Amino acid sequence: MWVAKDGHQIRLIDWSEPPAGVTVRGSILFMAGRGDAYEKYLETFEHWRQQGWRVSAADWRGQGGSGRLGNDDATGHIDDFAVWIADLAQLWEHWSEGREGTLVLAGHSMGGHLTLRAVQENLLNPQPDAMVLSAPMLDVFPESVPLPVKRWLSSAMSSIGDARRPAWKISEKPGSSIANRQKLLTHDEERYDDERWWREQRPELRLGPGSWAWVRASAFSSTAMFRPGALESVTIPVFIVATEADRLVSPAAIRAAMARLPDAEALIFGEEARHEILREEDGVRLKALAAIDDFLGRRVAD
Question: Is the Cβ–Cβ distance between 101 and 244 less than 8 Å?
């Protein structure tokens, strides 16, 4: 456990050191998505370890093994994404102290949103040498609903009842069933079952829908992300892996961000990939990892 300044305990893992004989290239801090826990990405951590990276990861405050913030253990609640961004700034400063070599910040889905916001706000000391974003949640579905409408609706729903109540019933998306959850996340049944196994072994990792406050916070944070000049201020190299077939985060928002980021590269999949690209079938997953390896090798080698 790493303890934030306000005393909240954040679960942190340092994966094993790179193998003997492999040149250490630097360190990667990986931050997972909404409802995730870092156990889901151990296979990716091991890949990066074999490439010479020291890898760490943490669970966001209020999910995974980092406690809960809502009325129950099942609802993912936050009042303001600024709380998570402040946690990341503190954690990054703690984690990077004394580390030699390249420092890379990586995030999946909501983790990609929050890591990018932290860089936009110039809150990370030292500045990362590069970023890797997997299916970043820059906006959510439905894409046809503009952000001002999402802000208004989520604010209204938060104000007419307890904002900590769940905004939908089950699964990752309003209107989706547990039976369809895998279809949103990955084609790979074994990797999907791996998540289920971890949740059975460690029930504290289970998390269901987000709260209405989370929905509101997401809409306001996405608005801040796309304000004039915000994306243009991100001068470090950014690599994005995403899919046009994503039905959880907005591909249109990712395309819009890529057009404005000064130094961004991307690998965009189609129907062969669902939201969890780093947990997809090997044909997709290995291609994504190879592209990330190539990016890091070209842009931040040595």
Answer: no
